[in-house]
Amino acid sequence: MTPENGQLNKLVIIAKFFQFNQLKTNFRTESVAGITTFVTMAYILVVNPDILSKAIFLQSSGDLFGELVIATAISAALATLIMGIYGNYPFALAPGMGLNAYFAFSVVLKLGISWQIALAAVLIEGLIFICLTISKIRNQIVNAIPECIKQATTVGIGLFIAYIALINTKIIVYDETTTTTLGNLNQPETLVAIAGIIITSGFIARRITGSLLWGILATALLSWILGISPLPQGIASFPQLPTHLFGQAFIGLESIIKMALLE
């Protein structure tokens, strides 16, 4: 068998497994779609660790950022592979933008709950959702929720994330009288953030593939040129394995059990 025939046989096997003929698609179309989806979602690899690193740390905020990047990538890769291979659906899965902010800012930082215990709560929540899904109860719950509430929830999460972003970029700041007020728009960091919003919005309006990622890169480039952010120390590096994160949910679960027994 020639290498060309072997490659062709592999493509045929893939086509049969994913039912390309029935779905009227092909390997090239699905490959391009997969790359496009990755480029569109790649910002999560930075945004999710940035949010979580404010609550998940050992000595100081951000010291586990590298490990959180790898943990985000691994979780997204495994979930997407399971969805594609087991579920046979072309859906990419990754940590949700909104729940991570709630985890970091509301549960850990505001309520003062340790991030290990919070992770244990997420683990328990996941197990409950698996049980609800297997028992078909989840479908009944979702179908019982009015469509307007579903849409409002999505919009609310988006506004919550946008609010956090506006605070981090100092476009809006805390005010004792009105709680929130307009910040100093003359600050370089704020001007770059505003420029980034405009650039990204333009990319989205022009329907450019990977508009969010290109917007992030354009904003970062502008920040580097103006000297607001330090230049990266390298293009690539060996991944920082999440050794400090592994098993922390079980440690938190142990703490929960101990607290329950003491009560």
Account of the protein in words:
The structure is a single chain. This protein has 263 residues and is mostly helical. It has one domain. Helix content is 67%, strand content 3%. It has twelve helices and two strands. It has a two-stranded antiparallel sheet. Strand 1 and strand 2 form a beta hairpin. Helix 7 packs across helix 12. It starts with a helix and ends with a helix. 13% of the residues are buried. The model has no long low-confidence stretch (mean pLDDT 85). It is found in: Endomembrane system. Its main location: membrane.
Short characterization:
GO terms for molecular function: purine nucleobase transmembrane transporter activity. This protein has about 260 residues and is mainly α. It has twelve helices and two strands; from the N terminus they run αααααααααββααα.
Strands of the widest sheet, in order across it, are: 1-2
Q: Helix and strand string, N-terminal first?
A: HHHHHHHHHEEHHH
Shape: globular
Low-confidence stretches are: none
Q: Cα distance, first to last residue?
A: 70 Å
**How would a crystallographer describe the biggest sheet?**
2 strands, antiparallel
Q: Count the E strands.
A: 2
Number of helices: 12
Helical content class: 55-70%
Mean pLDDT across the residues is 85
In quaternary terms, these chains amount to single chain
**Total domain units:** 1
The Rg value, from CA coordinates, equals 22 Å
The amount of beta strand, in percent, is under 5%
Structural class computed from helices and strand pairing: mainly alpha
Helix and strand topology:
Layout: H1 3-17, H2 20-23, H3 27-41, H4 44-52, H5 65-86, H6 99-110, H7 115-134, H8 137-144, H9 147-168, E1 172-175, E2 179-182, H10 188-205, H11 211-225, H12 248-262
Antiparallel strand pairs: 1-2
Helix pairs in contact: 4-5, 7-12, 10-11
Membrane topology: Multi-pass membrane protein
Organism: Okeania hirsuta
GO molecular function: purine nucleobase transmembrane transporter activity
